[in-house]
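User: Sequence for WD40 repeat domain-containing protein below. Tokens please.
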Amino acid sequence: MRTISIPKSGTGHSAPITHVAFSPDGSRLATSSYDGTVIVWNTADPAHPAETATLRHRRLVNSSAWNPADPTLLATASADKTVGIWRVPQEGPATLVNVLARHTDDINSVAWLPDGERLICVSEDGRATLWSVLDGTFLTEVGSHEAHCMMVSVSAEGLAATVGEDGLVAVSDPAAAPGSGPAATRKRHYDSSIEGCAWSRAGDLLAVARDDGRVDLLTRELEHVLTVEVSSSAARAVDWAEDDSAFVVGAYDGSLHWFDRSGERRHTVADLRVWPRSVAAAQGLVAAGSFRNAPHLYDMATAAELSGPDRATHGPNALAARGDELLIGGDSGTVFAVRIENGAQSRATPIELTDGPILSLTTDGDTIYAGTYSGHVIRYDGTRTSSECLGAPIPSLTVDGGRLIAGTYNGEFLVVDPATLRLEERIEAHGGSVKSLAPIPGGGFLSAATDRTIEAGTARGRTKLWEHGNLVNAVSGLHGPAGSVVASASRDHTVKVGRVTRTEDGGWSTGAPQTLLGSDESVKCVSLLGDTARPTVLAGSYDFNLYCWQVDWADSAGTLASGRVLAGFAQGLSCMFQLADGRVAVAGWDGRIVFVAVDEYGAHIQHTLHIDDIAQSADRKQVAA
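Assistant: Structure tokens for WD40 repeat domain-containing protein:
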């Protein structure tokens, strides 16, 4: 397993901040990031937080937690399937004390028991496990979910609450006698996913952040006390003030919301740079994650921002084309329009669309459409126009029959007027986030979602093509006179590819798809090269590799054996796009963009660009102008 190696430029992180955690006295803040690091900041002067230590994992870091009994111990949870236990003194270098390494999947959250000797870890496989930290002993499983377990919070009394994408809230007592069984666990089920939770400091109330934009306050017995309407977007994270008089909620629309204990709203801060995946409160301060290089710090009482990031990160999330320009959209909210001539970048024009991340791109002629994390669709044809907030992040876009189709985090297709960006129709489409849309010539589009399915059709008439063993990240199509080839990329580590044809009644038929192996981790993006009779499949993975397979429809075993690594990146691969000239552009979160072509000798890389060079070139052009 290679280590993330994104060059660091300036202070702070080189990729978005996934989690923030205050030390108990509020003097230090640990920030976790997609760049594979945890940075510890001295926040004694919150207007000028200072880096004091950097800790490294081999994959992105999802969370961290300070030990309640020993303020120099910090636990860090990573997608490399380990938890690091670090000693981080106020002065001097940090040292690695232990590694908890029997986890079977990415670890999403960790929480210490009050004794400071045991740690609960929750992971993507739904398990909540208890560990003896200093000797690294696995003790027991304290809970499980039917889908990803997203968060754990431990009360001052030692009660452990876990929440997950299955809508389950579970509270257990790890100190209960062995063999006490399910009766020792209290459960409450919701129809929506639950991604965040936090016990009050006194341990009498549990706040749970719901995907429908609400926060519930529950008793220790999980009896309902209060529901707070937070946002039209999902509520993602929550934490309590030191005296339990108020709590802060982060929502997917890029906003932070302050409420008092009775549920009355005190403040709202809207800032598209904020990543509300995590919030933390301590000693009169509130910290929030960011899509940029440093955390946001606020005054708990007034919500005034005390400090924030000073540098954008340009990790690419979406690719599209406008004429002979490649469009690259990413975390900074800028779209770079790059013209390539003779294998080299000849021009890079920045288009400033928003302050928050761009998740998806599509074009219609010279018009660019961008889907954002904050739930807006932005139109750019020389003038920027934005829709109203559509209620959820927009990870996918396509144009079909003169209508703009947006796939949402909530599993909906939104039909949007392409000229006015007015929402015309909201359609329940998938049972999970619509991660990818791809147009079909002649009408219709492909869709891939976290409900594990691939579908084809129109917004209202769709056919399921096949299903994966885990969520699906991307879908792509290659079309010809004899029909179409569809490929899909999944978190189950596989790519599936199959031939599909349009039926007389307007539906779609397909045979059994071939399954392509090679990736050691989730496959994030996929595309196709060549022709439908003998296509080449490209796929990019969280294991940092770009894979290719040569499909032989008559010999599925031969196709399976054909997989090879075409290139290695320094981070996970994020997106791909089929260019009109038959090549495929491939982008990684390390900022590399490669162009892949296929000839009689197979797939090969023609040339490579880097997003930082593109951004610097665009900056120089602006200065010269």
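Residues 124 and 148 are 4 Å apart (CA to CA).
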